[in-house]
Amino acid sequence: MLNKKEIGLLVLFVCMVIAVSGCMSSSVKLVVNYQGSWNGTITDSSGTRTIDGTGDKTIDLGNIIGSVKVQVQKKDTSSDTLTASLMRDDKNVTSLSTFAPNGDVTLSVHFTA
């Protein structure tokens, strides 16, 4: 049986582990900037999901450790610029743009802790 001091140290250790692991993996966001309609996919360790929108949009992808691939495509023939960016800690990790009609961009990143 553990005494009060040992239980206190164990609780402190568990709290420190939880706090540190929360600091080590930060939220990843996909930012799409485009005035028209667009759609695409996000693929990570949990699978593939579809996304769509009109105009600028920020999508919180949560805490990602590992690879993520994002594909975003215009749904029209406009020559306006579509830009997709992956952000972590509000810093741009990577971004690509297209001005081609029905153009698309694909971003691939491997996130570590």
Characterization of this structure:
The protein has 113 residues and is an alpha+beta fold. The chain has one domain (26-111). Helices cover 19% and strands 55% of the residues. It contains 1 helix and 8 strands. It has one helix spanning 4-24, and strands spanning 27-33, 37-44, 47-54, 57-63, 66-74, 82-88, 91-98, 104-111. The strands form 2 sheets. Strands 4-1-6-7 form a 4-stranded antiparallel beta sheet, with no helix packed on it. A hairpin with a 2-residue loop joins strand 2 (37-44) and strand 3. Residues 17-23 have low confidence and may be disordered. This is Lipoprotein. It comes from Methanobacterium subterraneum.
Helix-strand category: alpha+beta
Mean pLDDT: 87
Low-confidence runs: 17-23
Q: Radius of gyration from the CA trace?
A: 20 Å
Looking at how many chains there are and whether they match, the oligomeric state comes to single chain
The CA-CA distance between the termini, in Å, is: 36 Å
Specify the number of helices.
Answer: 1
Strand content: over 45%
Q: Strand arrangement, largest sheet? A: 4-1-6-7
Helix content: 10-25%
Q: Into how many domains do the coordinates divide?
A: 1
The major sheet is characterized as: 4 strands, antiparallel
Shape: elongated
Describe the protein's topology:
Layout (H helix, E strand, L loop, with lengths): L3 H21 L2 E7 L3 E8 L2 E8 L2 E7 L2 E9 L7 E7 L2 E8 L5 E8 L2
Antiparallel strand pairs: 1-4, 1-6, 2-3, 2-5, 5-8, 6-7
